[in-house]
Design goal:
This protein has about 500 residues and is an alpha+beta fold. It has helices at about 1-20, 30-35, 45, 95-115, 145-150, 155-165, 175-180, 185-200, 250-260, 260-275, 305-315, 370-380, 475-490; strands spanning about 25, 45-55, 60-65, 75-80, 85-95, 205, 215-220, 220-230, 290-295, 315-325, 330-335, 340, 345, 360-365, 385-395, 405-410, 425-430, 445-450, 455-460, 465-475. The protein has 13 helices and 20 strands. The strands form five sheets. The chain has an eight-stranded mixed sheet, with helices on both faces. β12 and β13 (about 345) form a beta hairpin. Residues about 490-495 have low confidence and may be disordered.
């Protein structure tokens, strides 16, 4: 009883202190939504972030850190600069934890009392900062997914977190916004996803000019990354959903994995491999690892089922499994020669093609979609109070005697589930690579290698293979009926996404 009273008394004093200084605690996810794009990768080597706070209106944010060298504490206060980016405006070190808290709270109150919403840093003329959501084309030219994102309440979490990250984004080509809003929505979403995941992995991320899309650095090591998307073919008929909301039956998927899916991956990668001016001949890229990062958008929900085809196409092998007399799993590789579909035929084995030795690895995720941004935004606390997001999927089962993944179901809510940007990323290493990628540059993702005729995989504790996201708003009967009629007429449809 006494212990409960002391705990209650501490929490009461803490709440009173927050009220006195006009601060409130932030979750790590909320803090990262604001600051992940500002934080330098070397920060994790200097200090461990422990506590997160903001002013009551979130004009200012702050963090308490443990100095990993001296084992004392520090604080940093951040405010928005001329372009709306959160950057450091006050800090102090060599403190006790209590001192750090009080000085942070005082700093937030002092800067908050100034009524300033902008804290200039003197570099407002740099090229960072993109407004994704100011429409640049007539409405009938806008991509349907962009219109949903920009206008639909279901997508406020995604729009909110994108708005924060784009304050830091550099549009090297000058056409990012136009393509994002019109014909290139999927490919630009994939680039934004990669940008977020690479930053989260602790890498210095740069946008080379003119190509490839990214240069990442870890210490003295550099890797260049070109984003690739699998897109619909011209004139390809649109796949309509079943009554269950799914686009393809299991029987259809098994058949398409034999031919169409690997050919789609092959077409996208082959075009990059045979670029008129090869990436590996660019001055900055010469002698450095080059990675193609690919995602599949060739039809709705295709990213939920095509990943097995990528592995088969890259290495030219599939796998069969049986159980021996003792019930133990025995996996056998099967050599593949080619893939065929509707009269088109391509050889199996991208890493066996002439010139492919210049491609160090293929990076892949089935999760680099709009729904990923919505989930991450929701976990950061963005969205409406009546919004509910659920994610169902299959993840790797860490059991050497298991041939199948395990299902999972997540209620996407602060304090209930966690998710990272890099979750679900896989890197397939080229056994013939002229400049191999050091897997340590990309920690916490899955790595796959072809060794002695077998695929060897190093997988994180939680590695999803595929998932579906249900994005729901709880409404009254009148609103529900209105929305139902709009959905049936094709207006404001909210598709099940990945």
């Amino acid at each position: 009883m006494g212990q409960a009273r002391r705990r209650g008394s501490f929490e009461q004093r803490q709440a009173e202190l927050w009220t006195q200084y006009g601060v409130k605690p932030l979750t790590p996810e909320r803090y990262n939504a604001y600051v992940a794009w500002t934080r330098t990768p070397i920060a994790s080597f200097l200090g461990e972030e422990l506590e997160f706070f903001s002013s009551s209106d979130e004009v200012l944010v702050g963090v308490i850190l443990l100095d990993t060298t001296d084992r004392d504490f520090a604080f940093v206060t951040l405010g928005r600069d001329e372009k709306g980016r959160f950057r450091a405006i006050d800090c102090s070190a060599s403190l006790t934890r209590t001192e750090a808290r009080h000085l942070l709270f005082a700093s937030i109150k002092r800067h908050g009392d100034s009524r300033s919403a902008v804290f200039p840093q003197g570099d407002a003329d740099d090229k960072a900062g993109v407004d994704l959501f100011q429409a640049t084309a007539p409405r009938d030219k806008l991509h349907p997914s962009f219109k949903l994102l920009n206008e639909g309440d279901h997508w406020i979490p995604a729009k909110s977190i994108m708005s924060e990250m784009m304050r830091h984004f550099r549009d090297v080509d000058g056409n990012f916004v136009e393509q994002f809003q019109t014909t290139g929505f999927d490919s630009r979403i994939w680039e934004l996803y990669l940008y977020a995941a690479l930053l989260e992995l602790g890498l210095f991320v740069e946008k080379p000019n003119p190509a490839p899309d990214f240069c990442v650095k870890s210490g003295r090591k550099q890797v260049f990354i070109e984003a690739v998307t699998v897109n619909p073919s011209a004139g390809e008929p649109k796949v309509e959903p079943s009554k269950e909301g799914l686009m393809r039956s299991p029987e259809e998927i098994l058949e398409l994995l034999k031919g169409k899916a690997p050919i789609k991956f092959g077409s996208a990668l082959y075009s990059k491999l045979n670029r008129k001016k090869p990436y590996w001949e660019l001055d900055d890229v010469k002698g450095k690892p080059l990675v193609f990062a690919i995602a599949d958008f060739h039809e709705s929900q295709s990213m939920t089922w095509t990943s097995p085809a990528l592995l088969q196409y890259l290495y030219g092998v599939s796998h069969d499994f049986v159980r021996d007399e003792a019930g133990q799993l025995v996996i056998s590789p099967i050599k593949l020669e080619a893939f065929e579909f509707e009269g088109k035929k391509i050889p199996a084995g991208f890493f066996l093609l002439p010139g492919s030795e210049n491609v160090s690895a293929i990076l892949f995720s089935s999760s680099g979609t709009l729904s990923k941004f919505n989930r991450m935004g929701r976990l950061a606390g963005f969205g409406l109070a009546n919004q509910h997001i659920f994610r169902w999927g299959l993840h790797h089962k860490h059991d050497l005697n298991s041939a199948l993944p395990e299902p999972f179901l997540h209620d996407v809510r602060q304090g209930i589930t966690t998710e990272t940007w890099a979750e679900g990323l896989s890197m397939f290493h080229n056994p013939q690579a002229r400049h191999p990628v050091d897997h340590r540059i990309f920690p916490s993702i899955a790595h796959h290698r072809y060794v002695d005729g077998q695929i060897e995989s190093l997988l994180p504790d939680f590695h999803p293979y595929t998932s579906y996201t249900w994005n729901l708003l709880a409404v009254d009967d009148e609103t529900f009926e209105k929305t139902r009629k709009e959905f049936e007429s094709g207006i404001n449809a909210q598709p099940v996404d990945t």
